[in-house]
Amino acid sequence: MNNIETVLKSAQNQLIQAGLVDSPQLDAELLLSNILQVNRTYLFTWPEKQLNPSELEQFQADLNKRLDGQPIAHIIGYREFWGLELKVTKDTLIPRPDTETLIECVLNLESLNQTSKNCSILDLGTGSGAIALALKSEKPHCSITAVDQSQPALDVAIQNAQRNQLNVEFLHSDWFSAVDNQIYDCIVSNPPYIEKNDPHLQQGDVRFEPLSALASGSDGLDDIRLIINQAWSHLQPQGWLIIEHGYNQAEAIQQLFEQSNYTKLQMHKDLGGNPRISLGQKP
Ligand SMILES: C[S@@+](CC[C@H](N)C(=O)[O-])C[C@H]1O[C@@H](n2cnc3c(N)ncnc32)[C@H](O)[C@@H]1O
What we know:
two-stranded antiparallel sheet; binds S-adenosylmethionine; Helicase, Ruva Protein, domain 3; 2 domains; alpha/beta; elongated
């Protein structure tokens, strides 16, 4: 009997036995809803629906990829972020729920909400476009520029902008190199911030993501140092720099902000309660 319920149960058991994934039930549901082109609610509504041989074959092929350790987002080709469906490939970071904390921080900035003029935001290291597109969806009147040094990642971000009908300017740039003398009300970044010898880089989904999106020198702070330093000359007075970072980097980043004379420093925790987002204002 190959109905939705039994197929899901069997897939879940295979994932549990492999001991590789944290969320076997969710993974099985995402794979099957992708094959059937339905949402997950459909799976619970129609548990007795039979799968045809072709659907079964495709499902087992995708399940085998997951059993080999490939990330779900790579197998189904997309990830949801801030309610947007974003294409992801081996060239992009898979957007993380923790990064939604950064979006909330930007949306809570009083200066951006009070300004009578249209605000301008720069997203450094946009990857799939996640941050830039989420902000554009919330602040359609802001002009948003997003840069990345990876052209293949930018190509994906451009497709995501088109797919979600959001108008963002994308630039191929090594951090600020292609930004000229532009100045912004707000600069945001989720840069690479993992120590280059961190053993976590060899584990789980991260193994399938580009190292250039993840690692940044021996203490993980090479790119953040540069961004904090160079953002100053691209910020308006009262402009904010908002950075996502590792759970153990908040103190070091606070010092970097202070050394560069930013004020009104704040730190916000992610969904797991870890320090994750730091921000400072150019006076
Ligand atoms: C941690 S990923 C973040 C991707 C996306 N913003 C997100 O939150 O899902 C870091 C991104 O920075 C980009 N990057 C790394 N070095 C860069 C550089 N020198 N200039 C511009 N972008 C860079 C990587 O290609 C990658 O897309």
